[in-house]
Amino acid sequence: MVSNSLVVPVVLWGPYQPTHCVSSVFLSKDQKTLATGCYDGQICLWKVDPDTLKMTPRCLLVGHTAPVLCLAPASIIQDNNFLVSSSESGEMCTWDLVDGKCKESAKLSQVHTSIQGYHMSNCDDIRLFCVGYYAEIMVMDPFSLEVIFSLSSKVKPDWISAIHVLRPSKRKDDVVLAITTTGTVKVWTLIGNENKYSEPIYENESKQIRCLNAISLNCCSQNQRTVLIVCAKYWQIYDAGDFTVLCSVISPSGERWLGGDFLANDRVILWSDEGKGYLYRLPAKHWDGGPPRYQNAPMAPPASEYERPPPYYFPGAPSEQE
């Protein structure tokens, strides 16, 4: 007699293995598990040795029918090893990284292009801040995949291209900083009682800057007044107080920036589509006593007025001989 209670998934392919052209990457906090989403819709889990960086494929997760655009943590609790993925067709899945099982799935009409997992002050665990091909910021539960509330725009509503959520020092509220594809910076302040039955939550501040199709936006954890915005052809440092430009650097010839982040209050790392990393030391005068102030500064100064800190180190992959 055949039982219907047991389902054993089996993945087969022909003489050639899946191409697995990587479209998104997630590294666990302990740096021992790497997840890579690909354009074919699969997600591969890799075992990583933090000392040697040797990676061994451990599991192939099959559940998406389109390129995997986003991978984000689902929990900050140490024993909860869960991952959320989102595809180009609006599919979302919550995965158990231990056994590879899909715990929850949903199909949305919205397509996410970026997800940040963030622990809000009034929550026991992470909330997902999602942006994409829609003019809102959707805040979702990572385990039920339900929308808890949304952040809307009154001024120049448009697709959000990059987002950063943070909690200012000595404050209990959370701040959402975002930039639209057309270069409008927006700020929302969350006090902790937001839900799907609330009135529309509109931005508290908004300002147009000369920065189109931003790829990433990050605030420095040591100095939250400084903001790094990365676009394909340049990266810029802004003063979060009034969003004036502190410095700007064009990408190397023939390369496009893919992202960047702060390593310290005066150091940033950028990486390009050539697989290269660039470390920059920021101009010291901007951090002696705080960022500078411009009197009647233009929206974006001419390129000749920007600081251009030269890179001081190029981290790269070891050569084949090594």
Secondary-structure blueprint of this entry?
Blueprint: E1 22-27, E2 33-38, E3 42-48, E4 55-62, E5 68-73, E6 82-87, E7 91-96, E8 102-107, E9 112-119, E10 126-132, E11 134-140, E12 147-152, E13 160-166, E14 174-180, E15 184-190, E16 201-202, E17 205-208, E18 216-219, E19 226-230, E20 234-239, E21 245-250, E22 257-264, E23 267-272, E24 277-281, E25 311-313
Description:
With 322 residues, the protein is an all-beta fold. 31% of the residues are buried.
Let me know the largest β-sheet.
5 strands, mixed
Distance between the termini: 59 Å
Q: What is the mean pLDDT? A: 86
Flag low-confidence runs. 288-306
| Structural class category | mainly beta
Number of strands: 25
Helix-residue proportion: under 10%
Which terms would index this structure?
mainly beta, five-stranded mixed sheet, four-stranded antiparallel sheet, 25 strands, 0% helix, 46% strand, globular
Quickly describe the structure.
The protein is built from no helices and 25 strands. By secondary structure, the protein is mostly beta strands.
